[in-house]
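INFO  loader      accepted 1 record
INFO  loader      residues=910
INFO  predictor   begin
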Amino acid sequence: MEEELQFGAFSIVPARRSLLREGSAVPLGSRAVDILLFLLNHPGELKTNAEIVRQVWPDTFVDEANLRVHVSALRKALGDIKREPQFITNVPGRGYTFIAPVNRRNNGAVPVARPTLPRFRPERLPARIFGREQTIAAVTRQLTKGRLVTIAGPGGIGKSTVARAVIARGSFDGEIVWIDLSEVATGNLVPTVVASALGILSRSDDIAVEIAAHLQPRNVLLVLDSCEHVVGDIAKLTEDLLAEAPDLHILATSREPLRAEGERVHRLLPLDLPLSAVTAEAALASPAVQLFVERADACLGGYELTDGDAADVVDICTRLDGIALAIELAAGRLEAMGIAALSRSLSDCFRVLTRGRRTALPRHQTLRATLDWSYLILSPEEQQALRELSVFRGRFSSGAAAAVLSGTEPGDLLAALVAKSLVVVETATDETLYRLLDTTRLYAGEKLAASGELPDVMARFSACLSSALESAEQDLYAASPEEWPDDFAQQVPGLRAALDWAFGPSGGDALLGVRLTVAALPLFFRLSLLDECLAALTHAITFLDARPGLDEKSRMKLYAALGWPQLRATNAPEDGVAAWTTAWRIAEELGDVDHQLRAIWALWVDVLNRAEPRQGLELAERFAALAPSSADPTDVVIGRRMKAATLHWLGRHGEARQELLAMLADYEHVPQARHSVRFQFDQRVTARIIIARCLWILGDEKAALKEVEETMRYARDIGHNHSISNLLAEAVCPLALLSGNDGEAAAAIRLLRDHTKALSLDVWHTYADGFEAELRLRDGEYRLCLAKLRPAMDILDLAGFNLFRTYFQSIEAQALSGLGQHAEAHAVIDSALEHGDVSGERWCLPELLRVKAMVTAKGQSPEGLDAASAILEAARVAARQDGAIGWERRINVDLEALGHEPAQLSGAAG
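INFO  predictor   done
INFO  writer      dumping tokens
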């Protein structure tokens, strides 16, 4: 009995090594015959050049060029020389596949014995499988409930490993056949490959019927690995086989479900990542980190995770999305680089992750090959959709996807990519959201850039993001701290990318960038992204200034934002004044009351920062006159706060406190939450800062410190970083110093320094130096005091922030006097007093006079002591005029030191 192999019009009997075409002999060399027989015995499978050479020339070194010559002769003999091959296809650089159906028949009457099924051996099961215990158990249970189970998930996530682990558990008591479909070239070859794996000699045109008949009496678990590229043909075959073979079970692995009748799908998720880990022990609770450490140990011949490496290892695993293959590839790179260098290099993960196991399937030897496999089996429309979705840097809604996708059925395209495990669904919130894994997004982004479609897609994405931010403006203003980070912070990475494109050197769409910058202003400020805000503002204003009249409303809003004090460097105070003056002028031209009020408020802040409260009162009154015209009733209340704060700096503390208490009461009954963005700070915090200061000056130190404590608690609860910095600089630090709580003052100064450094708040950061100088003065370290204080005062003066300058001058004068430089000390304190006379600043006038008296008394002459006493009396008079019991107490201490009788304190004002 002889076996005959038939394909197309050809047949060959291996024992005779003769090729026939419709019964006529076809001349063919012996090596070509060997190649043909080898390929015929593995139909539909890619056979590499090396495999063919080993089979045909087992003991001889042969160059691959020789192989190409013989394959060319074989194709010519088969007439397989057209552009689209009929029999043998070449995968450049890899090998050859026989793609035509092959029928086997035996000449003779002796029946062929039914072969036993090949025994499955889980030879590639890893020694340890991390984080999949529950998954393996779940899939095992599913196989007891249904006869078709599909493990679905992205490439490299570990589907085949889980399938092998399920089999290795031994819970299935029948025969097991594993069939790797990854090298099957086309779907019509699926039945042939399955039949070949089962050892079936096909004798008919309907191979599926023969497979079903072969399996019908058997208890078999058929494992179909890597079905995604022939998923439709697999689905049909599984339905046919399960209908005919009652004891057949099928376990499939695929990047998308088969969608066959009776299918149970188990979605395989990435390995769990650490939520937050700063120690090795905490990091090792994560299966992703466990896998990395195990592979690193194998790669390096010994590795243990340390606390020093923990943060970098967590970063590596997180950036690789917990994908097992990517983590293994990353660990394999440790032969050439350290942990920290590997973490830094992952911005180009496709270049770095290129060295997989030699025995791994080709599509698993590099990260790019894994994604190439997923991408190439998509339809052209799905490929385009994946490219377009790569512009999303985080989670996105179906509506946002529809706005960006160019396909006519965006919902269907999104669903298809979800099914193929290329888009992840998140249902933790009320709204279903989607995202691309970072590795997938980077890959698709490369494809988008290469396609030439990037400008159109980024334009749609930028317009979508701008519309979303514009429609969410009120939510950005009004959302509570618990709500807005999840809703809005996820937009930031996409916003960055859109702005980079819009204003980029490749010439995106600057006008669209302007619109996006304006829409993002409340988001920038609410999230304290000041450096990024300044960069975007600069681009947008430069563009509009060169095109007068193009979009004046946007130009007004941009200049208003540019005037924010946090966006100015300390050496450019005039920039803020100029920006707000420009915004005010445009607002008046447009009749925009809201931005007129914003501009007046900002200029009021500027004159107060320059310690000119008399001029500030004029602006506060102008604001109050315009506020009733505003659509927002809160503006009237804001005007009251502005006036009250100005009264404090003018020394009218009792009036200021009463006005602020009334203002806070009114503030409870008006719409709120927008003003932290419109006017930079939370209005309750700013009001209570002044109340606390007034309470101390008015003599109620305990109430003042309690007010500070409660205000800090509130500021932290609302999570507004700039209001916290403001509170530290203008109340917490100075009141701790004035109350003599040096330890608390030192702690507050450190907190101010750290807080403002993290937020790049130059001015308030410099205040910390001034407050620290006062501590050095109290320690008698006069030179250190001056070394700290004078550079800080120069910086503040250059920045136009002189709010505390006169008080800092009183510290400077005391330090100079302590060094015996009495004339210089007199000059400094006289300069401070002169400024008060010109500007109307009076909040610390009694303290300035007290310091002048003490400097005068340093001479110890009778005339000096008499003069000092007279100045102290004048200080006490000023304190009593202002109801400033806090200052008066300090004055009385010095009067007693000069031999005067202690005086009765005046009653508190207000």
